[in-house]
């Protein structure tokens, strides 16, 4: 049972291709169901890992990787299909790219990260998941109103900037402390 959170992460990764296919084919009700399942699996694996102590080194890599693979791929395809503004996708993908490059530089130049996700990053992931869910709902059913999607897009952008800044500040501060 202790590997259940990792299995759930692998299932989430396995759902990416069917989500992208259904999105591309315009079968938004299927896309919605699959994406909702993937989004809920993110919360479920984290809950199980924390509640029962089923954490692992693999899980600490697999969970954020599954989140990033899901969100980046859906953002890119939905943007290509004209569903998500380019500026929002550029910010979301750019933030993730910056975090990955920063983590690699930190690892090579200083050593292991030994970090935990920032609260702002968890809020950002939640807002990105919610935004994509509502974009798919809009494509399927014409709801919510477009002004609500626009407001959520800007709120998501704000969370991208805040969480990206938080990571830069956190790890640059750590690097400077160790350099002194």
Describe the structure.
This protein has helices at 4-25, 28-52, 57-80, 86-109, 119-141, 146-179. The chain is an all-alpha fold and 180 residues long. It has one domain: CDP-alcohol phosphotransferase transmembrane (TM) domain (Four Helix Bundle (Hemerythrin (Met), subunit A), Up-down Bundle). α3 packs antiparallel against α4 (86-109) and α3 packs parallel to α5. The longest helix is centred in the last third of the chain and has 34 residues, at 146-179. The protein starts with a helix and ends with a helix.
Keywords:
6 helices, mainly alpha, 180 residues, Four Helix Bundle (Hemerythrin (Met), subunit A), 84% helix
What quaternary form is this?
Answer: single chain
Listing every helix as H and every strand as E from the N terminus to the C terminus, the arrangement reads HHHHHH
The proportion of residues forming helix, as a percent range, comes to over 70%
Strand elements, count: 0
CATH level-1 class: Mainly Alpha
Biggest β-sheet description: none
Residue stretches low in confidence (pLDDT < 50, at least 5 long) are none
CATH homologous superfamily identity: CDP-alcohol phosphotransferase transmembrane (TM) domain
| Total of DSSP H or I helical runs spanning 4+ residues | 6
- Radius of gyration based on Cα positions: 17 Å
Helix-and-strand structural type: mainly alpha
Taken as a percent bin, the fraction of beta residues is under 5%
Average pLDDT rating: 93
Tell me the overall shape. Answer: globular
Cα end-to-end separation = 45 Å
CATH architecture: Up-down Bundle
**CATH structural fold name:** Four Helix Bundle (Hemerythrin (Met), subunit A)
């Amino acid at each position: 049972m202790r590997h259940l959170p990792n299995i759930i992460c692998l299932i989430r990764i396995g759902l990416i291709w069917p989500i992208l296919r259904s999105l591309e084919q315009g079968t938004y009700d299927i896309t919605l169901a699959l994406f909702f399942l993937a989004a809920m699996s993110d919360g479920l694996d984290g809950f199980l890992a924390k509640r029962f102590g089923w954490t692992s080194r693999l899980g600490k890599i697999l969970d954020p990787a599954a989140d990033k693979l899901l969100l980046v791929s859906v953002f890119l395809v939905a943007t290509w299909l004209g569903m998500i503004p380019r500026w929002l996708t550029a910010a979301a993908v750019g933030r993730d790219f910056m975090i990955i490059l920063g983590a690699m530089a930190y690892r090579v130049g200083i050593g292991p990260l030994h970090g935990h996700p920032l609260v702002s990053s968890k809020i950002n992931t939640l807002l990105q998941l919610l935004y994509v869910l509502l974009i798919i709902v809009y494509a399927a059913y014409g709801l919510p109103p477009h002004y609500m999607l626009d407001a959520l897009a800007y709120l998501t952008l704000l969370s991208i900037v805040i969480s990206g800044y938080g990571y830069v500040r956190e790890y640059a501060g750590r690097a400077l402390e160790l350099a002194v």
